[in-house]
Amino acid sequence: LMVDIIAGARPNFMKIAPIICAFEARKAAGGVLRYRLIHTGQHYDPRMSGEFFRQLGIPEPDVNLEVGSGTQAEQTGAIMSRYERLLLESPSDLCLVVGDVTSTMACAIAAQKLHVPVAHVEAGIRSGDWTMPEEINRMVTDAITNWFFTTSEVANANLRKSGVGDDRIFFVGNTMIDTLLANIDRLQKPDFWDGLGLQEGEYFVVTLHRPANVDKGDGFARLLRAIAEGTRGLPVVFPVHPRTAKTLRDLNEVPDSFRLVDPQPYLEFNYLVKNAKAVITDSGGITEETTVMGVPCLTLRDSTERPETVTTGTNELIGTDPAALAPALEKLFAGQWKKGGIPAMWDGRTGERIVGILEELLGSKRGTN
Ligand code: UD1
């Protein structure tokens, strides 16, 4: 029985690593499932892709669809037609997609149209914000998913509300946290640590890549100034996403306290996060990692598809108005940030659960159309 594991963009790689590890463990124990790792090529920079494979011990992809850059529709179309061709030439029994990137949605559509069942890891989460491409990807993917692997009770409730029966929902936890817990003792101090004068708890980490925050130069410049003012001269380490780099190139100046660095490999990035005073971000996945590491997180968005990082964890939604940063950072400097706890099932064993369930499901084909 062959399972296609799909990965395309950076946030997918930490989500597939523990699933692959669990597949290998089951195979060694005599399990019947085999997998084929398919990289769509959506992220192709070594800094956005290859480095993650190397550090997380993910094997070379069996197939690379090499779609590269493009508009949302161009990438979606290219991934769909190339994956469809692959499935026609060499069929599979299940398409396993993770997260919410363009590759997730495109492969789910191509597979389901060829009657290959789809399993979605991190299913059911919703921001309610249709201006985010990821929200469209989540909704479309979940509309045509057979088996839903979820990270939270909120996700389970969202799926039930949309009519999915409990027999197709599997609350298994968070594979991104499997990867974090598996690597927490081998995080690596980046080479630039001393050169940039960083000290534990005495710097901030910033990541920004959402179109709403970075695509317009004026707003982006205002945001950077507000961050610099609110962080009181402490160094602000900013690993720059390729999308953000384009806007940065056109800015006249970046505040002095900013330390611009390349996108960081997994172990270095999470070392920076673990030892930061706080993280300021517009990412979703990072809010889960800060929650587990107990690091304060200020999210520059109006909504989140991961509400447990706010209700249980260390995350707070600040909004996209730069003026909102000052009061939040004052609270942080006053030592009044919440401590936070860890959401249910985020225990490092999600990959195993998923593969165990897939063995049962594919054995009986329960729930397919
Ligand atoms: C994608 C995901 C987003 C995820 C983010 C993390 C979608 C819709 N969005 O957004 O959910 O949080 O990745 O990184 O799938 N580029 C490079 N090198 C690369 C990849 C991209 O230079 O390896 C450039 C592209 O040419 C493009 C820009 O970066 O100009 C954006 O890349 P794209 O994959 O379209 O979406 P992201 O904004 O990275």
Automatic annotation (TrEMBL):
Enzyme superclass (EC): isomerase
Stored NCBIfam families: wecB
UDP-N-acetylglucosamine 2-epimerase domain segment(s): 33-359
A Pfam family reported for this protein in Swiss-Prot or TrEMBL: Epimerase_2
Higher taxonomy: Bacteria, Pseudomonadati, Pseudomonadota, Betaproteobacteria, Rhodocyclales
Gene Ontology MF terms in the entry: UDP-N-acetylglucosamine 2-epimerase activity
Full protein name: Non-hydrolyzing UDP-N-acetylglucosamine 2-epimerase
Keywords: Isomerase
Cited InterPro entries: UDP_GlcNAc_Epimerase_2_dom, WecB-like
Enzyme Commission number, as recorded: 5.1.3.14
Family to which the UniProt record says this protein belongs: Belongs to the UDP-N-acetylglucosamine 2-epimerase family.
Gene: wecB
